[in-house]
Amino acid sequence: GESVGLHLPTLSVQEGDNSIINCAYSNSASDYFIWYKQESGKGPQFIIDIRSNMDKRQGQRVTVLLNKTVKHLSLQIAATQPGDSAVYFCAENPNNAGNMLTFGGGTRLMVKP
Amino acid sequence: KAGVTQTPRYLIKTRGQQVTLSCSPISGHRSVSWYQQTPGQGLQFLFEYFSETQRNKGNFPGRFSGRQFSNSRSEMNVSTLELGDSALYLCASSPGPTFNEQFFGPGTRLTVL
Fold first, then answer.
1. Which stretches does DSSP call E strand in A40-94?
2. Which of A3, A10, A47, B97 has the fewest CB atoms within 10 Å, counting from its CB?
3. How many whole angstroms separate alpha carbon B71 and alpha carbon A35?
4. ∠A83-A89-A95 over CA atoms, to 5°?
5. By a Cβ cutoff of 8 Å, what residues of chain A touch chain B?
6. Cβ separation of B90 and A44 shorter than 8 Å?
7. What are the φ and ψ backbone dihedral angles of B74, each rounded to 5 degrees?
8. B92 contacts in A (CB within 8 Å)?
9. pLDDT of B53-77, one tens digit each?
């Protein structure tokens, strides 16, 4: 079943290319930023996170960049695969807000074989 | 280690009824957060429970309530259902009171007719 918005921005890439998904966050006091991947009919799945005292963090095939000056977050996926097709959300955890997350609107990534 | 489980997975109710959704967090996790996901509003935070106490609450009417039990399992209740309450309700589990990581369950798809 559907799990995300009907009018999400969509990024279409060729298999094997690199993907860059961008997100603007709202709260300059946020301490923690996370990228989630959501496939149809499933809950969001953790991809990678970054704390506000960092500007770059790398995982397996993924890199997150944080620019606090312009409140911008990006997710880079190297060698994009068909299994990467999903909706990607950025989320922020405001300082002193316990485990509350504020989510961005999401970007749909479509990988063409 | 088992993930976050939510029951039921699908639910159909009519306007005016009430509904109770259940969430079992990851073993050892003491914080449970609830989110509502709709095509129009995206992912929105409902509330968070830690050690049986509500710590944070989102901007939802009082018809939305929740609780947490001593074994960290949580329930949320929606009374006097409205058509606009149709959504995917997601439960997320975190280890402790301050943000470190958050894992989502598959969600409960609620349809209000």
1. 45-51, 56-58, 62-67, 72-77, 86-94
2. A10
3. 29
4. 140
5. 1-6, 31-32, 34, 36, 41-46, 49, 89, 91, 93, 97-106
6. yes
7. -135, 150
8. 99, 101
9. 999 999 999 999 999 999 999 999 9
A-chain residues near B94 (CB < 8 A) = 99
* Maximum Cα–Cα distance across chain A: 44
Terminal-to-terminal C-alpha distance of chain B: 37
pLDDT > 70: percent of chain B = 99
Q: B90 touching A, CB under 8 A?
A: yes
Q: How many residues does chain B have?
A: 113
Helix (H) or strand (E) holding A109: strand A107-112
pLDDT tens readout for residues A62-86: 999 999 999 999 999 999 999 999 9
DSSP-derived 3-state class of residue B84:
helix
